[in-house]
Amino acid sequence: MTGVPRRKGFGLGRVEPILFNTFNTIFMICLVIVTLYPFLNTIVVSLNAGNDTIRGGIYLWPREWTLQNYKAVFASGTIYNAFWVSVARTVLSTLLNIFLTTMLSYTLSRREYVFRKPITLVFILTMYFSAGLIPGYFLIKELHLLNSFWVYILPSMISAFNMIVIRTYIGTIPESLIESARIDGAGDFKIFIRIIFPLCKPVLATIALFVAVGAWNSWFDAFIYTSSKQELSTLQYELMKLLSSSMNSNNNPNVAAGAGMTQDTAKSLVTPLSIRAAVTVVASVPILVVYPFMQKYFVVGLNVGSVKE
After folding, report:
1. What is the mean pLDDT of residues 122-140?
2. Mind telling me which residue stretches traverse the membrane in this protein (predicted)?
3. Statement: residue 307 has pLDDT above 50
4. Fewer CB in 10 Å around end: N or C, the chain?
5. Helix, strand, coil shares, percent, the chain, to 5
6. Band (225; pLDDT cuts 50, 70, 90)
7. Helix 272-301 to helix 235-248 angle, to the nearest 10 degrees?
8. How far apart, in whole angstroms, are the C-alpha atoms of residue 114 and residue 110?
């Protein structure tokens, strides 16, 4: 007797994936909106007339288009020299930090090195204890680094935290590769250049991004160590001075509006809110340009130490 085939019902097992995918899609869309909106709003404010911005209600589209905010940022002739100083500082700091920190990490990862534990302890202590700003200033002064470009480079050549991260990653590299190279007659430096350094690309890209962002965004060291030498001023320090002068100026849009200001004059007005938005965009663009090229390494590098074989 042939049974009547059962019709597959629309059971809970088939509903669960649909509900999960729907919820996951809605959640990710909301997360993207929440993440991107602040930056998009900053761009919109930077392209809106300063006098109109203080009225509020600027969200995803400028109400009165203007480039006056960016003109105010680039009006100073010192901004261009400061840009190249920041570029040189970021590139040199990143390259030296990556190479020297990786070399130190490889040395401290070797079990046959008898001083690796005490040296590692010394570096870890620097992460918890600091001499402070004033002793640091006197140290820089005694090293004759005041008003010198190298004050941006030398203090940042080695990072204790980066050393620990890279050393952890080097520990995941099979020891058999190093032993095979030694059998073939390779020394430590050749092993480091030919084997360790190329295999550390994911973690090095991650560390390079952190170091580059830190060097690019830094302005306090320029304020402390090179403020008396204009040609060594960095982009972030110049933008900080511009923002500070804008906030302290008497260019009050409410007062100007009461004085019978024309529409063209209103659009040319620069307010602290609008100049701050333009400064944020100008400072962020170089990092946003570099990040997509390092993203695939960045994702891999974040997983350092998460999987053990």
Report:
1. 87
2. 21-40, 83-106, 118-138, 150-170, 191-216, 273-293
3. no
4. N
5. 70, 0, 30
6. very high
7. 150
8. 9
Mention every residue, 6+ apart, whose C-beta is less than 8 A from residue 228: 147
Is residue 67 within 8 Å of residue 49, measured between CB atoms? Answer: no
- Give, in order, the Cα–Cα distances in Å from 279 to each of 23, 26, 68, 237, 285: 38, 33, 12, 11, 10
pLDDT band per the 50, 70, 90 thresholds, residue 259? very low
Fold of the CATH domain 78-232? MetI-like fold (1.10.3720)
User: 185: phi > 0 → left, psi -120 to 50 → alpha, else beta; which?
Assistant: left
Region 65-75: what's the mean pLDDT?
Answer: 85
pLDDT of residue 266: 47
- HSE-CB at 21 with a 13 A cutoff on CA atoms is 5
Closest CA to 64 of 256, 270, 267: 267
Q: Is 152 helix (H, G, I), strand (E, B) or coil?
A: coil
Q: Cα separation of 216 and 162, whole Å? A: 17
**Residue entry with tokens 């088939």:** 14
Which residue, 112, 156, 161, 118, is CA-closest to 136?
156
Provide the pLDDT for residue 106.
Answer: 92
Q: Is the pTM higher than 0.85?
A: no
Which position has the token pair 């070797």?
110
Which string of b and e fits 53-80 if b means at least 16 CB within 10 Å? bbeeebeeebeeebebbbebbeeeeebe
Q: Where are the domains of the chain?
A: 15-74+249-289, 78-232
The CA distances from residue 78 to 73, 217, 233, 289, in Å, are: 11, 17, 8, 23
Q: What is the DSSP letter of 5?
A: P
The Cα 48–Cα 274 span in angstroms is: 7
Question: For the chain, how many residues are written?
Answer: 309
- In sequence order, which residues have a C-beta less than 8 Å from that of residue 18 and are 6 or more positions away? none
At residue 65, what are phi and psi to the nearest 5 degrees? Answer: -65, 140
Tokens 């965004």 appear where?
A: 217
pLDDT in tens, 276-298: 888 888 888 887 887 777 666 66
Q: Is the pLDDT of residue 190 over 80?
A: yes
